[in-house]
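Hey, quick one: can you model this chain's 3D structure?
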Amino acid sequence: MNADDPGVTVWLDAAAEEGLHVTAVHDSDFAAHNSAYAGMILPDAVHRQADAALVAAVEKYVSAGGNLMLVYDAGTLDARGLYPLAKSRFSNLAGVDFAFYTTLRDNTIQRAPVLGSAAILDALQVPPGKAVPYFDSLAGIAPDLTPLTPAEGPFYTIDTYYYGHVPYASFVNRGKYDGDILLRSIPGLVAGYRRSGQGSVLYVNLALGSLARRTDALLLHGFLHYFGVRSGLPTLASVPDGTGGLVLNWHLDSNAALKPMETLKAIGFYDQGPFSYHLTAGPDRDTAGDHLGLDVPHNQRIQEWIKFLLARGNTIGDHGGWIHNYFGAHLTEEDKSFELYLKLNTQALEAVTGKPIVEYSAPVGNHPKWVTQWLEEHGFLAYYFTGNTGVGPTKSYRDGERSDHTIWSFPILTLGKAASLEDLHQAGVGDADVSRWLVGVTDFAARHRVCRLVYAHPPGAEFFSNALRVWLEKTADLQKQNRFRWYTMTRAAEFLNDRQQVKWTVSIGKDGAWILEAQHPSDLAHEAWFLPRNVFAKPVIQAGAATVSSDGERWIVVAGEGKTLRFTASRVSTRNTD
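Sure thing. Here's the predicted structure for all 578 residues.
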């Protein structure tokens, strides 16, 4: 298989975004040099076939101390492309028997929601609101595993925008599992981590790569992160200085936003930030001539708001094309005549701001692939996205192919099936629940040291003014502790583009200490690396400028100005973490 095949690149892209060194390796290279790898992934979809020699090499690698991530249908077919008669040859490593195609046929794979504890879903970086309590019956869930009882709960499952609980496909499996059960479902074990020989196996019974290629990349990212942590590996931070935060993306789609903008001032929003404000600039909202739009070229009031927001460091972006509801309702993948509306919107905002417009959000979430191409051609850096919910800024894949090349998509955060404040109000969600969610996602971003996006419309603020005040108190407190930042899409995207130019390697010195060396063509400043504290002693800077601190869970090495950095870290543990 070619290294540029989307089935391969989706893994490499996600790993790079998670700050991990992952490379594609052919079977023959692995068989010859497997002792050189800190961990190995057998991905879904791209490696269904495996001959007996590869199966034996993988078993030997794990037995000798290797870390394996075994995913879904990897190696379920033999060299001839046929299912083995009884079960997968990797069943012993997985810890359960699976892939009973010869006996179950069309029932070999089944769909159902997955369940796990709040702590496990958090470890997989599933944010609050995406992870939701599961109140349905527990009967029939993974009958061969330790039975679940309501007294152990609450159990959590994964929701998606608009549709609710996600029914994930997984292999029916059987057997008593002797490791840590991470996720389970009606078909059986969905994910587990166990020791095997001197090594370990993370078995993930989900089509992670295939899901990510169809705008559900959350668990691909989550399990890559989990595998890196359990394997005790250094990671490159995805946020400046390793400080987590949120992007707050306001959508102003009509003149109905103007009065609530005053409400936001009373709540105190303009005292924090910066935020990303996206405007639909035309004079109409639903149809041409209704005069319900912002009319940016002729409305002095909105022009003053734009200047007010810019003066406080916020960014102004496009919210679709000129007539919000008409554009969102009629835009298609085939009809590119709507490019005119994109141009009108961009030109109107640039005329007022005097700056290039480089952020975008799609009205009603309608974002055909050609729009992404148009944005890239016109120098945009980022867009909000209703796919891949719960993930940080990413290079999205759609219909099996990578759709983002020079631009970053910013998936939204959700609370169950809803996302914006108006959605939550219409769904009957109360002020206290919205407050817990907003505080929860803030704490999530700060603890995990990642960036996520929340979006809203100013009119929604009038439904949840108390929740927003509590939220601002939380963010202000964390900012004082230097544990949280507000990011605009532009700032986050610019950092990620700069981060892509970082070249770093890890080697092991004669004394057994790990040596990390990094280079950047202009400046490493604000790049950061995380090293698990239960694996490494405090890093020692050997060359270049950097500071070393700890949050109790990890060492944080933040680079100062300069093109090169070198530091060492001795291992306090020679085995992967348990």
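One thing worth noting: Residues 6-109+166-236 form a domain with the Rossmann fold fold (CATH 3.40.50.880).
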